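Recap for those who missed Tuesday's class. We walked through two folding examples back to back. For each one, the amino acid string is listed first and its predicted structure tokens come directly after. Nothing is annotated here on purpose, so try labeling regions yourself before you check the end of the notes.
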Amino acid sequence: MTAASRRREVTVADVAREAGVAKATASRALGGYGAVSDEARDRVLAAAEALGYRPNELARSMNTGKSKTIGVVVGDIENGYFGLAMRGISDAAKRAGYDIILVNTSEDVEAEIDAVRLLLDKRVDGLIVAPASAYRTEHLREVHQSGHPLVLLDRRIESLPAVSVGVDIAPAARAATRALVAEGHRRIAFVSALGTDGERYSGLPLGVSSVTDRLVGILQGLEETGIPISPELIRFEAHGAEKTHAVIADLLALSEPPTAILLSDSLVALNVLLAFRELGIKVPRDVSVVAFDDVDWAAITDPPMTVVSQPIYDVGVTAAEELLRLMRGMAPDATTLRLPAALVERDSIGPVAVSAQ
């Protein structure tokens, strides 16, 4: 080929000409479909490498009906949970020869509906979605009923029999609550960024199942130790530093403020620690703290933070593997898959301050 022709995009026809085969044979060899002799395939692949051929993914998807891509929709990529889960999804997908298209929704259902539509328009072979709300699920129901491979990440929807992969977190939440009770705490709060159920707790279930599961474990721990449930200590919509500061300030201004707080995820935990610093609150001298998610910085805070550790990377890997099974026409291992969590005790839990007693 001339220098001028090399500057343009190399086509299948160029590869076929270089390999001395028909264009249809080159297409099958490059696309990995149909019958091609080993000798012809080797010649085509050698020619493609020599010419610097890059496949036209759109054309290949039209030929094979497969785009070799997986669409992933998450609520907040700033949340360490989703970042690590994405790493697991990406690693598992890459091993199977798939690329990832990621869309962040900021936990907004309308954005999620648009994201699902966009990914289907791009002909992704399967979807992994962390639903923003269990209250609006028609778009996911349509995907599932159409037969398009779908796996729910971290959260399940009870009325939708799609495969879901997450963490069995209630037992560890219960253990965390009992650990606080063992230190004398009776006023135990729970703070979450949940945005589907208003600012205050009004009953279960909630709009996000993973938050429901955390709260179920906490309430079990309280009930088992004879501590009454105090709805005013269960707060939602703690998203962003400013709003979280307001939530914490409001809790501490109660006539009987909490002496311990369970924090729903690592991003909430970070914002709560910032609020404590601004308010002059010391952990665990003034307030004991347990966070859900064992992010890297949790072990190096002062003091190191007690956490509910989740196998987040493995959740991502499992979600991708289950989607790959569905994409191959195989039955899932189970409709609901839950990996175990564990309480990791460090130094952010202490006895109730004498003044609080």
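Example two. Treat it independently of the first, because the proteins are unrelated.
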Amino acid sequence: MDLRYTPEELAFRDEVRAFLKENLPEDVRQRLDNGEYGNKEDLVSWSRILNQKGWAVPHWPEKYGGTGWDPMRQYIFLEETQKWPAPQPLAFGVNMVGPVIYTFGSEAQKAQYLPRIANLDDWWCQGFSEPGAGSDLASLKTRAVRDGDHYIVNGQKTWTTLAQYADWIFCLVRTDTQVKKQEGISFLLIDMKTPGIEVRPIVTIDGGREVNEVFLTDVRVPVENLVGEENKGWDYAKFLLGNERTNIARVGMSKQRIARIRELAGKEMSRGRPLIEDPRFLEKLTAVEIELKALELTQLRVVAADAKRGNTGRPDPASSILKIKGSEIQQATTHLLMQVMGPHALPYHDHDIEGSNMPPIEPDYAATAAPSYFNYRKVSIYGGSNEIQKNIIAKAVLGL
């Protein structure tokens, strides 16, 4: 595969960089560059800037607001926005439920939801995992019973990311208990303002409130909010998870973090010389960079293969490879950053360490190093745990 950009692709890359420089507020970029988590206001405002430009949902079909870019331009755009860095689109809307709706939804659903997803008028969250139904998602127990023009939904979802902000939740629910467990699941769109929905926070190890429990008690959902056919939700969920795993690779984000690690390691001293000159540290950093380059090549192959296959509604099982290796590299970079920071990486520490003869380095970034390290332990679990992804690869890719 020839990975050199054509002159047209280089011109497009320059266009993206110029747009980022001119339109992304510097304070937003700086917060992300310092390793801080993005906030809702930054993401909403940036999403609307992108939507005004026509770039909010670049991989969607043009008739639903997409750009018509080929896979390489989509890849360049994703990499450049992650490297800048800029706030990434709300994945639950743009990368997950949006493609499900335009692929399997009714015309009324497409008209109602897609424009609002592109402009982030509606904040979506994902109601898949349950207590006892995480890696084995098909074991979910949340029930939806038909009652005239409504479904009555009862159950519990967990690890529901950013549900505290959500206007809508897309849920997998059990609509038939008499068939094989994968065959009795449906895909519902539920307004979070509906009576009977309660959101309770789960405080994570880094002290943040990122994930939640969502309880549904006699929640009445209009039948028109069913996506596709009843009891076909497992097929739609596999399609969605294939998209999620491809985007979890986050090559551009890892490139940005490695660049920052190299910069900081050039400032931090170890045994009288910059840490970047320490052979053992440099060996670890170089190994991660090599793995990242291999991941980048694999992602390009998956993107190119998807373009050739067209929109079949079936995920590429190779996306599981991206999910596994992408999450491992993200964890490795947070570990390397902790090594660079040393004692400066004490959780939420933002000033010089008393009694230390080390000068403070990048205190804003140091304050986020430990929380990021702890938070990124999760990436090998969400989107389908890595052990489950290995089984998918063995069966669907290797034919074992």
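Answers for example two:
Confidence is low (pLDDT under 50) at residues 349-363.
The beta strands are 124-127, 143-147, 150-157, 168-174, 185-191, 197-203, 209-222, 269-270, 273-274.
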